[in-house]
Amino acid sequence: xxxxxxxxxxxxxxxxxxQTQNRQPFGGxxxxxxxxxxxxxxxxxxxxxxxxxxxVVHIDRVARVVKGGRRFRFRALxxxxxxxxxxxxxxxxxxxxxxxxxxxxEIAKKHFISVPVHNGTIPHEVQSKVSGxxxxxxxxxxxxxxxxxxxxxxxxxxxxVSNVLSKSLGSSNKTNAAYATIAALESLVPxxxxxxxxxxxxxxxxxxxxxxxxxx
Length: 216
Known about the structure:
Layout: H1 2-22, E1 53-66, E2 69-81, E3 86-94, H2 97-110, E4 113-114, E5 126-130, E6 133-139, E7 146-147, H3 150-159, E8 164-168, H4 174-186, H5 197-207
Parallel strand pairs: 7-8
Antiparallel strand pairs: 1-2, 2-3, 3-4, 5-6, 6-8
Helix pairs in contact: 3-4
């Protein structure tokens, strides 16, 4: 009896060993059930932080009259900034909206300006005029916030200014308002370069030439 069971036991062991080798590795989906380990997916990487804050302010459709009729294109106005005192404005045309926005973004990045910001506001009052748009920007105390609207607010936000008062005194054209705001911020003078009354008195005294001796 023992002689008959030995070959059967050996065959059973070989069959069990073959089934073990044919099994899927750990983590595979066997039988379609859940909870049998990871599914072999790659770990998700955290999203990359954008270096610049890109805002599409306005998109307009423009037409050009040609011999066969009208040819339509799109014009985009984009404001780009890093919220760390750098900002730029770009306007460009394209065959579609995506092309226009891409061109305008590249133009804005090539024309960055640095804004002197102190305690979240600008150092002094400034006013600028571009075409029919006239923009007035006034510094404000901490906690005031951005008292501005439309294009002016967008430019100040991406530039990193948090407390300011502003007023649009002319045309409401968004393109002109954006470039007028940029011109106003570009004309700001930081406090370190201000000329005070004391500096004005010391400068002529230092530049004054020594008096010549009178001839005998």
